[in-house]
Automatic annotation (TrEMBL):
<feature type="compositionally biased region" description="Basic residues">
    <location>
        <begin position="180"/>
        <end position="197"/>
    </location>
</feature>
<dbReference type="InterPro" id="IPR005225">
    <property type="entry name" value="Small_GTP-bd"/>
</dbReference>
<keyword id="KW-0449">Lipoprotein</keyword>
<protein>
    <submittedName>
        <fullName>Uncharacterized protein</fullName>
    </submittedName>
</protein>
<dbReference type="InterPro" id="IPR050227">
    <property type="entry name" value="Rab"/>
</dbReference>
<dbReference type="InterPro" id="IPR001806">
    <property type="entry name" value="Small_GTPase"/>
</dbReference>
<dbReference type="GO" id="GO:0003924">
    <property type="term" value="F:GTPase activity"/>
</dbReference>
<dbReference type="InterPro" id="IPR027417">
    <property type="entry name" value="P-loop_NTPase"/>
</dbReference>
<keyword id="KW-0547">Nucleotide-binding</keyword>
<keyword id="KW-0342">GTP-binding</keyword>
<comment type="similarity">
    <text>Belongs to the small GTPase superfamily. Rho family.</text>
</comment>
<dbReference type="Pfam" id="PF00071">
    <property type="entry name" value="Ras"/>
</dbReference>
<dbReference type="GO" id="GO:0005525">
    <property type="term" value="F:GTP binding"/>
</dbReference>
<feature type="region of interest" description="Disordered">
    <location>
        <begin position="175"/>
        <end position="197"/>
    </location>
</feature>
């Protein structure tokens, strides 16, 4: 059994159009469950936590699930290390709107180490988003990774969050308490992102 040498907390904000499956993705990740019923208090947004272990480190995700019709504020992004913009793979219009959601994040966060991701949900349904469109947005937003994801079946969800955790560990280099300051590493100079489908 691997020895856990550190524990880090990473706040991330998840955004997207109505009905793209933001809350379903969070539910699948946190509870490994899915429901076709809309969550209560959908208009208020949700705050949840989940711990996972990657690279011998326990990572505690603090997830702010912003509802579509809630105006984002600086407090939503205060202390956040990354954001996720979700689109629906079966709804072509939603892929274009991720630009707006990532733009909201950029309005509140100027940290070069801030992780900006896009998730394409509902990959279990008929895919109506063309690969050329995905590639264009991937290039224009300077993101590097592409995954398919389905909150309903669970495909790719766990792997997605594990990948995000690894990226956050690398970019934020949490202190190894056993080594003190020697455990610190320089932050990445270039802003990185990932496109998660």
């Amino acid at each position: 059994m691997a020895k856990i040498i550190d524990r880090a907390k990473y706040k991330i904000v998840i955004m997207g159009d109505s009905d793209v499956g933001k809350s379903s993705l969070v539910k699948r990740f946190v509870e490994d469950a899915w429901s076709d019923e809309k969550p209560a208090n959908q208009s208020k947004g949700v705050y949840v936590t989940k711990e996972i272990t990657v690279n011998n480190q326990t990572i505690k995700f603090e997830i702010v699930d912003l509802a579509f019709d809630v105006e984002a504020t600086a407090s939503d992004f205060s202390g956040a290390k990354g954001c996720i913009a979700v689109f629906d793979y079966s709804s072509p219009d939603t892929i274009q709107n991720v630009r707006n959601f990532l733009g909201i994040a950029d309005r509140f966060v100027s940290d070069d180490g801030f992780l900006r991701c896009i998730i394409g949900n509902k990959a279990d349904m008929e895919k109506k988003v063309e690969e050329s469109v995905i590639e264009t947005i991937k290039t224009s937003l300077n993101v590097s990774k592409v995954y398919e994801c389905s909150a309903k079946t669970g495909t790719g969800v766990k792997e997605m969050f594990e990948d995000i955790a690894k990226s956050l560990i690398e970019q934020n280099a949490p202190v190894d308490n056993n080594k003190g300051k020697k455990g610190n590493k320089a932050k990445k100079e270039k802003k990185r992102g990932c496109l998660l489908l």
